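The instructor's notes for this session suggest beginning with a concrete chain rather than abstract definitions. Hand out the sequence below and ask the class to guess, before any prediction is shown, which regions might be ordered.
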Amino acid sequence: MEVSDGGVMNGYTGKILRIHLTDRKITTISTSRYEQWVGGHGMGSAIFFDLVKDKTIDGFHPANVITLMTSPLSGTLAPAAGGRTEVQGIGVQSYPIGWFTRSNFGGRFSAMLKYAGWDGIVLEGRANRPVWIDIRNAKVVIQDCQPLALWGQDTKACQEIIRHYVSGDKSAKDWFAPAENEGERTTQEPAILAIGPAGENLSRMACLIHDAAHGSGQGGFGAVWGAKNLKAVSVIGTGDIHVHDPKALLAARLEQTRQYAFSPDDKIRFSAPSGFHLPPLPGVLWGHPPGAGRPREAQRPQACVGCHSGCRARFKSGLGNGAICFTTLFYGSANSPDIQRQASDLLNRYGLNAHEMIYCDRYLAELHDRGVLGPGKAIDCPLDFNDHGSLAFVTRLVRMIACRNDGNGRPHDFGTTLAEGVVRAAKKWGRLDDDLKTGLLPFPFWGLPVHKEPAAQLEWGWGTLLGDRDINEHDFDWIKFDLLIARAYGRKPRVPAEDLVKIISDKMEPFQGDERMLDFSTANMYSKHMAKLVSWHRYYTRFWKQSALFCDWRWADFVNENAPGKIGSTGHAEPKFLNAVTGKNMTFLDGINLGRRIWNLDHAIWTLQGRHRRLVHFADYAYDVASNAEGLRRIYMPGTENGQWTYMDVRGRTFDRQKVEEFKTRFYKLQGWDTASGYPTRRTLTSLGLGYVADELEKAGRLGSEAS
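After discussion, reveal the predicted structure:
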């Protein structure tokens, strides 16, 4: 891996914007200082470690540093890699500790930031009154919200006001000057990232919203911005990105699109063993068969910058624009798809995390049905559940959580309590322990709702438990969906189990060839092979997805029907794109090794925050109750049975407490950490070039023992 020598930084602008909100000081950080981390998450973690001296502060503390980082691929033609932004800092959503955490979002913000001349933004301090940041190429101004009346606006209105302010009244044919930049003009509109009322009122479910529905969902970063009195960041740029080898970049894109991506000549498919091979159709769920998940209203796909596909939708009415995944699943009890789409819009406008809101709605309904929640009940709630499913009901629910009131503008403790998050609300109501034991509250780890069944999709469950948040990484999730569709339509799997595990395991450097890593059978749940899968997955995603910022929805491309031998492009495609842009000459394994370094840096930060082995456990129900939070009748994953590979149903399992502890020991040993505490050791950190991190851990009395 090569680092630039101080000349032209291919793929980079060369500078990171640093904004201290307390004293309104604007400075720059040289990108070359952090270039060894390449971009995105790696740079963000390194910057956070350097700037935040006390890692034990609360996420609402002014000293919390929030980074918005791009990658060298941002704004380029790299497919499903040109439009993502990585967000990091101490979050406020998780429980019992607001961990240093991450989120990211797509769209065009990262590209516009690069075009403006910035590789990222570092936010520090707290403004003494509500502000927004106005970036027009090199000109950066911290603006008061009051003249534009931005504070109190929803995310849509806020963005519209800022666009009008920056761009003026212009028709599509008009050119305008975005700044005093020697006469340069553009027809672009600013890319804006904003919080809604939920963030302003410090709801722990609050997120950041860009355009209609690109959300930085997990972590509660909307509330962190609210605590900093920061309403929005607007950026518009007229520059470009210096690419090392434009011909190689274009050739790589054409190869990827022609050989590995979905072809319009193919039959429409709803599942494939690779996300890269899914069709470029909006991934929305409003409307059901015979529409097969496609909305009834006229719509067209919408893609992030540089993407070959379009997994989001734009509708004729505008309702639900850009929504995908959990945002389209919210309010499943709606009386009509139209109401559900309006509910989706409400979430995005108020700036609330759809994932937790889904389970919040379900949990409240269950408590009401049990007779413990409602007007005058043990849990005093002003909502009328006779109206559950209506637009009026969900509007009031969203408003009470976002505004910390009764949903109609009057004070009420219920809204204030829910704004603290579902787990903290359950604790206040005296229900947390019991509801986590029974599974009534399906929040298996870190105070966050279940996403995939952790005992079924083991890479997801273990990865979340050993990390800081629901991983939300779909690398092996496509396998399950392909099998479900195959069984539903009575066809064979696209790839036999033995072929699939060989193709994938051969790509998993430096553990390649260990096929048992893909064995999801009960007998292999706690094995050294599974520890290797979880380790590799943490390293791959920390670098290639969260630092190089390849989109999780489309990458990795393990198995692909278009390719010879059905061998997908992952392993050679990712470095091909990165090297064409940067000229770094990185290998796939270089990225995996750097991902391991980033993973260890993150773990050191969690250790400084108070992470200890004893905190790393599932909620009680995961050990005692066969949950089915996904609502699927079957969950098929590869596994061995009588020495033969097959696809087996892994739904309905539970974890064994003692075996979980045994797995943690295997995992910690594989990482080179202290198995008694889970603390990193000096030997491991030094071998990764993180000796300075070991020094800080030692000062805090949290450096692991080498003996274990």
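Then share the key points. DSSP finds 23 helices and 18 strands in the chain. Residues 588-609 form the longest helix (22 residues).
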